[in-house]
Amino acid sequence: MTYLELVNGVLRRLREDQVGSVNQNPYSALIGDLINDAKRTVEDAWDWSALRTTLTISTTTDIFNYVLTGSGNRIKIIDVINDTSNWFMTYKDTHWMDNAFLNQTPPKSSPTFYNFNGVDTNGDTQVDLYPIPNAAYTIRVNCVQRNPDLVNDGDKLQIPHMPVLHLALALASRERGETGGRSAGEMLAFAQNYMSDAIALDAYKHPEETIYRAV
Predict the structure, then answer these.
(1) pLDDT tens digits, residue range 82-98?
(2) Predicted TM-score (pTM) of this structure
């Protein structure tokens, strides 16, 4: 669904007039804010299939720090692959990387390890690679990339829309009182049921992620 369709979906359930634009009036703009609040909550609740993607790094000789362009700061890494050398890369913590770079002379070869190193001026996640690349390598980062807020009327929601719509409705109900004879608490429980069902359906695509294995 689009941003505008979500807003109108909430407005109808509130028995309000639909709008031609999210920012048509102060109340529709408020509903738009609640849609984004609900979207963030639902996005963070599960690693949705619709948010899974692959970002690519093309290394440059002697450069070890790279930006995951477009990643934002709410990314979750699934795995990192050195596609040129055909191996999975391993995460190393900041202490290990600091020791490797600052207390030793880091080697230059095909990258084997990675570590996160803050964000750039655009808010995108940065990673450090070790060893320092000595040539051009293709690094594939499989990840869950959560999206920025919806802004334009035609912006599309990628995750299941029913949990977002009904959670926004519950937030709106709490702001104004009851809606259709149901309390905000009842609406919130209704939204949580939608979220649980959506997660359960999506989890069938990744059953290995719902099984606990003792280390």
Answers:
(1) 999 999 999 999 999 99
(2) 0.86
